[in-house]
Amino acid sequence: MTTHVVNPYDVAVAQFDEAAERLGLSQAMRAILRKPKRELTVNFPVRMDDGRVEMFTGYRVQHNINRGPAKGGIRFSPEVSLDEVRALAMWMTWKCAVVGIPFGGAKGGVLCDPHYMSPGELERLSRRYTTEISVLLGPNSDIPAPDMNTNPQVMAWMMDTYSMHQGYSVPAVITGKPLAIGGSEGRLEATARGVRVITREAIRMLDMLPESCSVVVQGFGNVGSITARLLHEMGCKVVGLSDISGGVYNPEGIDVPLALRYSKEHGQLYGLPGAQMITNQALLELPCDILVPAALENQLTGENAGRVKARLIIEAANGPTTLEADRILNQRGVTIVPDILANAGGVTVSYFEWVQDLQHLFWTEQEINQRLEEIMTRSFVAVREKAQEQATNLRMGAYLLAVARVAEATEIRGVYP
Ligand SMILES: NC(=O)C1=CN([C@@H]2O[C@H](COP(=O)(O)OP(=O)(O)OC[C@H]3O[C@@H](n4cnc5c(N)ncnc54)[C@H](OP(=O)(O)O)[C@@H]3O)[C@@H](O)[C@H]2O)C=CC1
Ligand SMILES: O=C(O)CCC(=O)C(=O)O
């Protein structure tokens, strides 16, 4: 799998620049929105199980807070970089604006490989990182959530650490928490549920039927595995899946419930009975109707975009398509539903979790899913209409909506006297 060949921040800025140009934003407004508002780099020690003290580096970047508190996940990965976190923070700003929830954009990351850390080491790292970035955090200022390689347990440690410093429980400072400490029904599945709604709407737009669609999903973590299950339940034929160990393929359809059980038991998809083993690269080029990248940035590149067979790409991951790939795929008539719309279900239910924590009143899973469904459907329609009205693609439609909303909030607050 090719990663980080292209700098994701360059991609994010170029996407913004095109929208700013089309919207005719002033040079001053472009300068404000192009750069992150705040960036914090932290270097901190963690005691490892063998007694050694190891130094780790982490980041928290707030891109924009003009529409509300900074919001965005925390990623643990050996490939985290400041530019990656900057890009992810900027995408969060547009994502929250595109679905109309009152947050700005932020993201955080720590350079580490949790696959090689014990639960104790991971807890000490999570707590120390939270302490280091706590100058930025707060239910009204900056609210983290899960992203790659972080989960409800990590969120619980982060919330507990922040609360210890305050002297009382502050559930609204973190979302994606376990239910027992103020988490929301439906948050674990929310990103994938949003992807399902968006896929359904995109299928309708293209006059396709779920039962006649074959699907490939790259990534089998929180987003990828639940998306595969939900699309399988919607009637699609899932023919390809992958995780870091590689891809599995069956043109007749993969038994998704079996794949879920197998991955849980074996810690990987590699070896799944009834499927052919392939590489992650080959997976992206499989014959299928719908491709759902749900792992990393820069998966669809200038190199492989010409060989992608899918007719519809749903960007469940953040930034899976480089600028070059985007251009090639658009020229080839492939429909791409952009990340800032396709994966916005996660932050939407994070918003519900934050609201519930602040009001100390909790909703049922049915209420959560219904509100999520409404917001995702409405946002898809708004993006599609904007794209049609401006004779552009869905990515630019989403950007035009989102950037205009953030620019309006910035203008109206009068932030450049
Ligand atoms: N969690 C959320 O709520 C949201 C997540 N996203 C985005 O969705 C994407 C996935 O996030 P999430 O599911 O939470 O993360 P997870 O950590 O739960 O899962 C990531 C998946 O990607 C796989 N993966 C990692 N590296 C590679 C690689 N080099 N090649 C192939 N597969 C790889 C992992 O494999 P393995 O399991 O073997 O490590 C795992 O299956 C990210 O882009 C994230 O930013 C977007 C919105 C919200
Ligand atoms: O739930 C959230 O607050 C943010 C999730 C996230 O990091 C993302 O949408 O990329």
Automatic annotation (TrEMBL):
Residues annotated to bind NAD(+): T191, N222
Keyword set, alphabetical order: NAD, Nucleotide-binding, Oxidoreductase
Site residues by UniProt (Important for catalysis): D147
InterPro entries (alphabetical): Aminoacid_DH-like_N_sf (IPR046346), Glu/Leu/Phe/Val/Trp_DH (IPR006095), Glu/Leu/Phe/Val/Trp_DH_C (IPR006096), Glu/Leu/Phe/Val/Trp_DH_dimer (IPR006097), Glu/Leu/Phe/Val_DH_AS (IPR033524), Glu_DH (IPR014362), NAD(P)-bd_dom_sf (IPR036291), NAD_bind_Glu_DH (IPR033922)
Top-rank taxon: Bacteria
Protease is among the record's keywords: no
GO BP terms: L-glutamate catabolic process
Residue stretches making up the Glutamate/phenylalanine/leucine/valine/L-tryptophan dehydrogenase C-terminal domain: 184-414
Pfam family, one: ELFV_dehydrog_N
SUPFAM superfamilies hit by this protein: Aminoacid dehydrogenase-like, N-terminal domain, NAD(P)-binding Rossmann-fold domains
Record-level Gene Ontology MF annotations: glutamate dehydrogenase (NAD+) activity; nucleotide binding
Residues binding substrate, per UniProt: K71, K95, S350
Enzyme active site: K107
Protein family (similarity comment): Belongs to the Glu/Leu/Phe/Val dehydrogenases family.
Record's protein name: Glutamate dehydrogenase
Naturally occurring in which organism (per UniProt): Tengunoibacter tsumagoiensis
UniProt lineage: Bacteria, Bacillati, Chloroflexota, Ktedonobacteria, Ktedonobacterales
